[in-house]
Design a protein that fits this description.
Layout lengths: L32 H6 L17 E6 L13 E3 L5 E3 L13 H18 L3 E4 L11 H11 L3 E8 L13 E5 L6 H24 L14 E4 L3 H4 L5 E8 L3 H7 L2 H19 L41 H9 L4 H11 L5 H14 L7
Length: 364
């Protein structure tokens, strides 16, 4: 999020796929498995469950592919009576993948998973190549959407070089009070509940909370984030990891890693919207990675996960095993034997987008 560099070519280019309906699972057995899945775009996946029917989520993949024709240093409202830069270029992961692409790829999988559960998803930007708007414009769009929740997806950076010391995810919440009373009410209550719920889902999925920036149980309180200072609907601002840390940069830059982050974020969103939110109490403890969900939540967050997924951990190992399959037949066998813990329709929707987003390659 903080350090920036010239935008290199992404390691995993987006695919331009024709709009077709989801291919039946039997096609996975054929040699055309990758091509069949590549033929599915996020927009083509119809809702498969009604778990989130009637809910709207505004997704904001941080930054953008190009600032051509726009002044990044133009001063815009910061929500605190001052101004800040319109936008930044974002960070670049060790290995060369720009943050805006990582954010976009994760958001596309989150979008597919939410839509497969019946939610309406509104995006802050339409692609990963052009301009995405100033921070105040994105906040205004989120407020105008009337979303039940807006989620900004980012990745942090602490150095232009390698920094293996600082690592972990965190949720940024605003310093209270916020001058706009409507914003203050939204972020001080439901926004904090949503942030804590996504925090719990990420920690429960095995991601470690940040050990830097003074993070407390995976939460960092800041006054300078316009995305939450200006948004009048509940907002969660996710920093998935440190792109300066070699290990986290490698995971976030890979299809399998991006998918795991997306599944964890989707779990948190689903739990929040499904009435299984964590408490807004700022001191509510986050569970240790891999531990049971936060006991302060009014209901058991693990009961929702990804619509009949027994646990968010079910998809991560499945993606890893699929990435090592040496043939479509082996991939099918893995899906048939290892994928039984995952709702078939949600799994197909997520996998279809993974293949489309990452150029028709098995995730590695």
């Amino acid at each position: 999020m903080r350090f920036s560099a010239e935008k290199p070519t992404a390691s995993f280019p987006l695919a331009r796929a024709p709009r077709r309906t989801l291919i039946a699972s039997s096609i996975l057995a054929s040699s055309a498995m990758v091509g069949a899945l590549l033929a599915v775009t996020p927009a083509a996946a119809a809702p498969k469950t009604t778990e989130l029917a009637g809910k709207t989520v505004f997704l904001d993949p941080g930054h953008q592919g190009s600032a051509a024709g726009h002044n990044l240093s133009k001063q815009v409202n910061d929500g605190r009576g001052g101004t800040k830069d319109c936008q930044t270029t974002g960070a670049t992961a060790l290995g060369g993948v720009p943050e805006h692409t990582i954010n976009w790829n994760v958001a596309q999988v989150v979008k597919a998973a939410l839509e497969s559960k019946g939610a309406k998803v509104v995006m802050s930007r339409n692609d990963d190549t052009g301009w995405g708007g100033c921070v105040d414009e994105r906040a205004a769009a989120a407020s105008k959407s009337g979303a039940d929740l807006t989620v900004s997806i980012h990745a942090d950076s602490t150095s232009t070089g390698s920094d293996a010391k600082n690592k972990g995810f965190h949720l940024i919440v605003p310093t209270l009070p916020i001058p706009d009373k409507a914003v203050d009410a939204a972020q001080g209550n439901e926004g904090r509940k949503a942030s804590n719920t996504i925090r719990d889902a990420m920690s429960g999925a095995g991601f470690a909370p940040a050990n830097y920036l003074g993070a407390v149980n995976g939460v960092v309180t800041r006054p300078d984030i316009a995305a939450v200072n200006l948004t009048r609907v509940p907002a969660a601002f996710v920093e998935m990891g440190n792109l300066s840390d070699p290990a986290e940069a490698a995971v976030l830059s890979s299809p399998a890693g991006a998918t795991k982050y997306a599944v964890a974020i989707t779990t948190g969103i689903t739990n929040y919207l499904g009435g299984k939110a964590a408490a807004a109490n700022p001191t509510a403890p986050a569970p240790e990675p891999g531990a049971a969900p936060n006991p302060t939540a009014p209901n058991d967050p693990s009961a929702s996960d990804l619509s009949d997924v027994k646990g968010v951990e079910a998809i991560g190992p499945l993606i890893d095993k699929l990435s090592k399959a040496k043939s479509p037949q082996e991939a099918q066998r893995i899906l048939m034997t290892e994928g039984q813990d995952v709702s078939a329709e949600v799994l197909k929707a997520v996998l279809a987008v993974v293949y489309a987003v990452f150029g028709g390659k098995l995730p590695v």
